[in-house]
Specification:
alpha/beta, Rossmann fold, globular, 15 helices, six-stranded mixed β-sheet, three-stranded parallel β-sheet
Length: 328
Amino acid sequence: MEVCGGQTHTIYKYRLRELLPKNMRLISGPGCPVCVTPIRYIDKAVSLALDHGCTVYTFGDLMRVPGTTMSLERAAAEGGDIRPVYSPFDALKSAEANPEQETVFLGIGFETTMPPFVLPIVQAAEKGLKNFSVLLSGKRVPPVLDAVLQSPKINVNGFITPGHVTAVIGTEPYAPLCEKYRVPMAVGGFEPLDLLAAILNLTEQFAAGTHDNANAYTRAVPSIGNPKAQALLDEVLEVTDDELRGLGVLPDAGFAIRETYAAFDADRRFKIKTDSHEPEGCACGDVLYGVIEPEECPLFRTVCNPDSPIGSCMVSAEGACNAAFLFS
């Protein structure tokens, strides 16, 4: 199982599955940040714009994710001030330039994207800004892998661990899982040869009967990760149980903003309440777990497609359903 959406798209685009022997199967796991973001998060973001009058800044790939009643794109069409940006610092600059306007940045993703999301919080505190906050949905990869390994729905024999995440956290967080479940892992990159190198490493481990925590992406990922980024995360964030879309609430699977920086937590500041539920018939949860292939979802290519997505796995450029639609 690969657990990075970028890896998933490379696998589909270059048809790597077709190069492998028939007794080896690659499945896509819960590594797409947009895909695992809970539907209630989208509903909260919509509420911030429409009900609380906030200016909401977000990365563009979140705009079209369906919420319970509407997407951010639809909310913007209905008058919400929702602005796609390339950097969270654009939101910070806007808050500084418009002190009378509540400004919220939508911070979603795994450990990869957390450092650039929390650094504006630190700077907002230093500047004494009163109108800037982050609606956070930060996830942690190792607990998610733990949940996959505990699931009775599927038997995963090895993991291609995500290159970008591991560049931040290092390889050590995977070691207890390798030992506990006796499952080999290998950090993989994003080019076809990077992924084939990780698959080769895992294959050699299978043949040798080992379950090592390997790094097949050493040209980009140091084993210690990024200590400076780790220290920043530890300063601003704390580990918490968290919900992943389709997977439920998992122990220690998320990040929360520490009490020290509570003034910059949009969840605390606005106390948003939602009545959220998943779209009927959507099988994103089973796709994210690797229980089914995207093509096995009854909505795939019928009512769910990139132009009219029902589930988050079809929206994101890193989603397995999106990749299957485009390349299979």
